[in-house]
Amino acid sequence: MFVYHNAIWTGKKFKDQIYLELEKTRRGLHAAWEVGGGHTNTGSAQLIANADGSPKKPIYIPKRGPKCGGHALFVLEVNDIIISTYHHRKNFEHYVYRVKRIRPLSRRFWADKDELNYHTPFELAVFDIKDNIEEGEIPRNISLMDINVSLTHEETNSVWIKYETGEMVADLEVLNWFHEGKWKKGGEPSGPVADAIRVATKKATDFHCRKPYYFKR
After folding, report:
1. How many CA atoms does the CB half-sphere of 199 hold within 13 Å?
2. Cβ count within 10 A of residue 45
3. With contact defined as beta carbons under 8 Å apart, do 23 and 30 qualify?
4. Can you give the C-alpha Rg of the chain in angstroms?
5. How many CA atoms lie within 13 A of 33 on its CB side?
């Protein structure tokens, strides 16, 4: 539901990975939520917009959304814009992302080579999935039939195992961000993107927000 920033080990170096976990609709479409709201001294908001920053038409709006939770669901497409806003005592940070691609979520972990004498890579991936389910990192209703396992890197005493699940994510790139009172890349946004940022600011300060803010009616 939220944007994740992770450092992924490729076998040679760490690579920054920014992605948004997606929902899957009954028609098999990939979708993302507008979420957020304010708390006593903090708040956040995540808005979904068209490629030009204009509001998208949602496919679902809950009658009574959860506090600071998902308030409108949108079909997500490549080149769409994601606005993420955070604040602490009205000191704001804004991030403007663009959707680069939509793909299955892949996970990687190290395993001792000795373990491959007793278990297949698939079995080791299942063990890792069960651990992640207990920690809340993977949905409990995941289908093990959707797992695709591969060995991606090998060293003297260990092997790097990669697997893909039925989860889908959107890879994002940062177009611009606002921190410590300054826009860091490309100058201050204008047009619909600037409008979306202003709306995100309002949502992030709406105490226990339960409604969508940025959508086409």
Report:
1. 22
2. 30
3. yes
4. 19
5. 20
pTM over 0.85: no
Asked if the structure places residue 187 within a domain, the reply is yes
Bridge partner list, 42 = 88
Number of domains in the chain: 2
CB 212 within 8 Å of CB 40: no
Q: Mark whether 137 and 175 lie in a shared domain.
A: no
Q: How far apart are CA 203 and CA 34, in angstroms?
A: 10
CA-nearest of 76, 99, 102 to 167 is 102
Q: What is the CATH number of the domain that holds 80?
A: 2.60.40
Same domain, 142 and 194: no
Contact status, residue 166 vs residue 103, Cβ threshold 8 Å: no
7-52 pLDDT tens trace: 665 556 666 789 998 998 989 899 999 999 999 999 999 999 999 9
* Alpha-helix runs per DSSP H in the chain: 121-134, 191-204
User: Is the CB of residue 20 less than 8 Å from the CB of residue 2?
Assistant: yes
Asked whether residue 209 is assigned to any structural domain, the reply reads no
